[in-house]
């Protein structure tokens, strides 16, 4: 029987529990977890800050694992037959309706009101729907991606859920060649956004954070300027950005501090 780390209720310690083996349906997949992650969403879950969470839950909405068994022939999003032993990841957002404004007009099915999210809005009693578990059960219809050989599971999880979040931000920011881009916050999302801004042709990328250690990582990834913000002088980084841009300021600013 698989072990899983369970959030039983908000503000309670996470408990390691033995849970029943998943029941494999036709089209379902049992995944042996290789890596999952802890992100800001999990902090929200732990404190009970999200609506409609059916505690107890198994957190972990972004994971990679080895396929143990499939319920008959199941294909990944590229139409490739998924074989036992394959290294695979999956989209945490499931059961979207393809019939609402979010799904059809906004093309943002991750906001669909019908959606269920692995590690967030499935109960631990509903199979093994989260990555903080030895096994993850992928229900029929979950979108699965087999990892290409050149991407190791460790490299994949290093990007984490921060990388697609940053990718979405960059997509919306529509950076033009030569733009000055300021990224506020240099956690996993901000760092990914800064690197993607460079890849998008930004002329200058300036990253702001209060932790020097994070700025060192940004610098080593090719960011042009880093600014360590000081709590006692919140305006000082604005002046510095103006200085670095001949008084023009940034063309694009990406907010990645996570502060509401
Ligand atoms: Zn929908
Ligand atoms: Zn996340």
From TrEMBL:
The keyword Translocase belongs to this UniProt entry's keyword annotation: no
The entry's keywords: Oxidoreductase
InterPro entries documented for this protein: ADH-like_C, ADH-like_N, GroES-like_sf, NAD(P)-bd_dom_sf, Zn_alcohol_dh
Classification via Pfam families: ADH_N (PF08240), ADH_zinc_N (PF00107)
Oxidoreductase in keyword set: yes
Molecular functions per Gene Ontology: oxidoreductase activity
Domain named Alcohol dehydrogenase-like C-terminal: residues: 188-258
Source organism, top-level taxon: Bacteria
Boundaries of every Alcohol dehydrogenase-like N-terminal domain copy: 27-147
Matching PANTHER family: ENOYL REDUCTASE (ER) DOMAIN-CONTAINING PROTEIN, L-THREONINE 3-DEHYDROGENASE
Protein name: NosE
Lineage: Bacteria, Bacillati, Cyanobacteriota, Cyanophyceae, Nostocales
